[in-house]
Amino acid sequence: MSEDDGLVQTFEITGGDFNRAGRVSIQIKDLLKEIGIEPEIILRAAIVAYEAEMNVVMYAQKGHFQVSLTPASIRMIVQDEGAGIPDIGLALQEGYSTASNAMREMGFGAGMGLPNIKKNADQFEIVSEVGIGTRLDIVLYLNKAKKE
Amino acid sequence: MNLRDIQKLLQAEVICGEDRLDTEIEYAGASDLMSDVLAFGRPGLLLITGLSNTQSVCTAEIIGAKAIVYVRGKKPDKEGAALAVKKGIPILSTRFMMYRTCGLLFSQGLPGITEVSGREKQKQ
């Protein structure tokens, strides 16, 4: 499906800006509410967006967040320029974290971010290169319940 | 139980949302870890936390929490307070510790989120 079929919005995220962290996700949630997406899907999309946004704030210099909405799905592509992830398999395990104390003081960095994203997404792809950055491609379907 | 009952029970200060104290609360969850709140939280939650920075307010807004109770006398930072006002999320601040806060609310019949949430069942 082409992104030209629906609404596309993009947001820029600044790494290390904890005061603004979460604002992009709140904007995305507001957008989905405005459009009239089902509340359970909004909840999952907002959680996914927030965890992805926090990962950029915590581990990258900057990030680009694109949301595409079609009648069938919400797609979120989050591309950052940052530390990257040496072992994606480890990073997807609940509890595995490389967070600093400053990140933990913000209530994050307990190794739950990527697992939370995976749990709430219908499709989830992650590509990362150490020293370059990480790209998340997340899809939530609008017309059917999440597969467990 | 509404927020006014909770405010009295916890002898809490109302930081914002004075006009929303009649809001009924059906369940609560407590954590200082926001990723845990994102994992167990769902709309309508009363969020009890000792994390009083702006991320606790963002997390409450993301999951659709009805209100926040800060324990140990914590108060929100400037950004967090402004966001809570903007999003209409009432904040109470109690001097009680997390354990006592949860115990008081539970003993008065307010259930925990996992007792009423389908999300916990989905995980099993």
Average pLDDT metric of chain B? 93
Integer average pLDDT of chain A: 90
* Oligomeric state of shown chains: heterodimer
Largest sheet of chain B: 5 strands, mixed
Poorly predicted ranges of chain B: 119-124
How would the global form of chain A be characterised? Answer: globular
Q: In DSSP terms, counting alpha (H) and pi (I) runs of 4 or more, how many helices of chain A?
A: 5
Succession of helices and strands of chain B: HEEHEHEHEHHH
Helix/strand-derived class of chain B? alpha/beta
Which geometry of chain B do the CA atoms define?
Answer: globular
Binned, the helix content of chain A reads 25-40%
Number of helices of chain B: 7
Contiguous runs where pLDDT drops below 50 for at least 5 residues of chain A: none
For the CA atoms, what is the radius of gyration of chain B?
13 Å
Tell me what the structure shows.
The complex is a heterodimer of chains A (148) and B (124). Helix content of chain A is 34%, strand content 30%. Chain A is of the alpha+beta class. Chain B is 44% helix and 15% strand. Chain B has a five-stranded mixed beta sheet, sandwiched between helices. In chain B, helix 3 packs parallel to helix 4 (78-87).
